[in-house]
Specification:
This protein is an alpha+beta fold. The protein contains 7 helices and 14 strands. The longest helix is centred in the first third of the chain and has 27 residues. A 5-stranded mixed sheet has the order 1-4-5-6-7, covered by helices on one side. Helix content is 26%, strand content 22%. Strand 13 and strand 14 form a beta hairpin. The chain folds into 2 domains: 177 residues, no CATH class; 139 residues, no CATH class. Helix 1 runs antiparallel to helix 3 and helix 1 runs antiparallel to helix 7. It is globular and about 60 Å long.
């Protein structure tokens, strides 16, 4: 890859600004006082295994506190636990990120509080190239019992700018809460009262269950009743995170369909990146002894021309395949010959996006671009 002197200086400036932002975020976290532990409720999960959702409180209702505070500053001396936070990117796609927070009572509420606009939360999201989804100063009251999470949001949520922002907020809350094993359904209150709709018409009536994320249709004419959902994973245009997309297809939602749809690329090429290079075709998919063997045409080798050498595309490919039961690993072939993806590049990640890895990977990618010149 050829990079001019001006481009190299721009990359250096961007890298320097990123490092300054990280330093400011760390300084802010150290400056903030730890929040009162009594302001959260529920029980901490029994285990902090990243690959499984922790248990949320299902016994005592929480006390109402401001959720705009930076939840990651709480209990700095406590042990860390992994929790999944739903942010949004600049195009409105919801992006789940595994974050480490201090182990504490009320981990579900602490997770939601990280999604509220505040100086600390917004800096954390910006480090990931993402944005928070709840408006500033929103307070949260959360009670979890018998699989139902009843969440009471303050009236700040009535001031969302449009229906899309409202829908993203509601979907992000439902997705986040149902990551916890103790939550199967979610019910909303606004300012202590039940409402049918928010300001711009988004429904908050009844109980919500976990649904499809970032829904799209493979064909404009495909009706929901005549189609089935399949989850695909694409790199964001920033190259920093993986975005899950639910595509409705008129076919069996199996690995063959998933890989074929993935090879077609995202519905909007300007918002998400394709996993396979331009002109590359899928020859076949075989599954043998838990191994998905994908055979692509010769253009697949052009993947190394991506700014990160194709690492994020390979990760998206592995995630798409290994979501299916019985598939434990992936092998890639090009015109029938084994493809060497590099050591560890086809390994199954613990989660699609891990906060501690995103900034490091971004710096590595930008450094490689900066110094890969002739």
């Amino acid at each position: 890859m050829n990079i001019s002197g001006n481009q190299r200086r721009m990359y250096l400036l961007a890298l320097a600004l990123l490092i300054v932002a990280i330093a400011l975020a760390c300084a802010w976290t150290l400056w903030r006082k730890p929040a009162d532990p009594a302001s959260s409720s529920g029980q901490a999960p029994a285990a902090a295994e990243p690959s499984t959702a922790p248990e949320a409180s299902d016994k005592a209702p929480s006390q109402q506190t401001s959720a705009g505070q930076d939840a990651q500053s709480e209990g700095t001396a406590a042990a860390k636990i992994s929790t999944i936070v739903y942010y949004q990117d600049n195009y409105g796609y919801l992006v789940p990120v595994m974050c480490s927070v201090p182990m504490q009572d009320g981990i579900a509420k602490a997770t939601l509080s990280m999604m509220v606009q505040s100086v600390g939360n917004d800096m954390q999201a910006a480090r990931l190239g993402l944005r928070t989804v709840l408006p500033e100063n929103t307070s949260i009251d959360l009670d979890i019992s018998d699989g139902l999470a009843r969440i009471d949001l303050s009236k700040e949520v009535l001031d969302m700018p449009d229906a899309a922002a409202e829908a993203n907020m509601i979907n992000a809350i439902v997705q986040t809460l149902t990551e916890f094993d103790s939550v199967k359904r979610v019910e909303f209150l606004i300012g202590g009262q039940k409402r049918e709709k928010l300001t711009h018409g988004t429904s908050v009536a009844g109980e919500f269950t976990r649904g499809d994320i970032n829904l799209e249709s493979a064909e404009p004419t495909v009706s929901l009743s005549a189609s089935a959902p399949v989850t695909l994973y694409f790199p964001a245009d920033s190259g920093a995170v993986i975005v899950p997309v639910t595509r409705m297809v008129r076919a069996d939602p199996d690995i063959n369909t998933a890989v074929l749809e993935l090879a077609k690329g995202p519905s909007n090429q300007e918002m998400l990146e394709s996993v396979v290079p331009a002109g590359c075709g899928l020859i076949d998919v075989k599954v043998e002894n838990g191994v998905a063997k994908l055979n692509f045409t010769g253009e697949f080798v052009n993947l190394v021309q991506n700014s990160d050498g194709g690492r994020m595309a390979l990760k998206a490919l592995v995630l798409t395949c290994t979501q299916f039961d019985g598939i434990d690993s992936v092998e890639i072939y090009v015109d029938g010959q084994p493809y060497d993806a590099g050591q560890g590049e086809l390994g199954v990640p613990s989660f699609m996006n891990v906060a501690d890895n995103i900034v490091y990977d971004y710096i590595q990618t930008q450094s490689a671009m900066l110094f890969d010149f002739e």
